[in-house]
Design a protein that fits this description.
Shape: globular
Number of helices: 9
Helix content: 40-55%
Distance between the termini: 39 Å
Structural class: alpha/beta
Radius of gyration: 17 Å
Number of strands: 4
Order of helices and strands: HEHEHEHEHHHHH
Length: 197
C-alpha cells in the first residue's frame, strides 16, 4: 500500500515464497526486489543469491523483522543492495528503493555499525588495487566513508559526472558489483577504520 501510493514507483508483482520470487523476478524484470528472509519453499537469502546471479539482475533489498547477524551477513554475501527492518519508517523504505534503483545501497543504521565492525581490517587488499589512479583511490576512500556522488564532487571540486566515471572505474578495476561491495572491501582492507575517515 505504501509503495502503490508513491509517485514514480510501480509495484509489478508479488510472491508468496522464495521460489516464486525468483520466477517473478525473471518474468517481470523489476528494477528492485524487496525480499523477506523467512519464507516457505526457499528462504530469502537463497532467493537473493539466485536472483542476483541472473544476467542483468534487479537490485535486492532485504526487508525483515529479524535483526540478526546471520541474516544480515547472509544477505550481504548473497548480493543484497540493502537491508532494512520492517519497522523502518516509510520514508526510509521509499528512499532505499530509490537509492537501489539508482545503483546505490542503504542499510538500516543498526546494521551499518555491525557491518563495519565485522568487516573492518579482516582481509588483504583487493586484487586490482595497484591499477587505481591516485584520484580513483581518493574517490574509493570517499565512497567508503559513505559520501554521495554530489558530496564527493564538492569535496574534490569536480563534476558529478566525473565522480560517476571514477566510481565506475573503481568498481570495474576492483571487480566489485556496486558501492556496497566497495564500502565493505575498503573496511576489510583497512583503508577506512570504524570511527575514522
Amino acid at each position: 500500500m505504501i509503495l502503490k501510493a508513491e509517485p514514480g514507483v510501480e509495484v509489478v508483482g508479488e510472491a508468496g515464497d522464495g521460489q516464486e520470487a525468483i520466477e517473478q523476478a525473471r518474468a517481470l524484470a523489476p528494477d528492485v526486489v524487496l525480499m523477506d528472509v523467512r519464507m516457505p519453499t526457499r528462504d530469502g537469502i537463497e532467493a537473493t543469491r539466485r536472483i542476483v546471479a541472473e544476467p542483468e539482475p534487479p537490485r535486492v533489498i532485504v526487508l525483515t523483522t529479524f535483526d540478526e547477524d546471520e541474516y544480515v551477513f547472509g544477505a550481504l554475501r548473497a548480493g543484497a543492495s540493502g537491508f532494512l527492518l520492517k519497522d523502518a519508517p516509510e520514508d526510509q523504505l521509499v528512499a532505499a528503493i530509490r537509492v537501489a534503483a539508482d545503483g546505490g545501497s542503504l542499510f538500516s543504521p543498526s546494521v551499518t555499525r555491525r557491518l563495519i565492525e565485522r568487516f573492518a581490517g579482516h582481509s588483504e587488499p583487493p586484487p586490482g588495487l595497484a591499477e587505481l589512479t591516485e584520484r580513483e583511490r581518493e574517490v574509493r576512500k570517499l565512497v567508503a566513508r559513505g559520501l554521495s556522488n554530489a558530496e564527493i564532487a564538492a569535496e574534490l571540486i569536480v563534476s558529478e559526472h566525473t565522480v560517476k566515471t571514477h566510481v565506475a572505474r573503481v568498481l570495474q578495476k576492483l571487480d566489485l558489483r556496486d558501492r556496497t561491495q566497495a564500502v565493505v572491501a575498503a573496511y576489510e582492507s583497512g583503508l577506512v577504520q570504524p570511527g575514522r575517515g
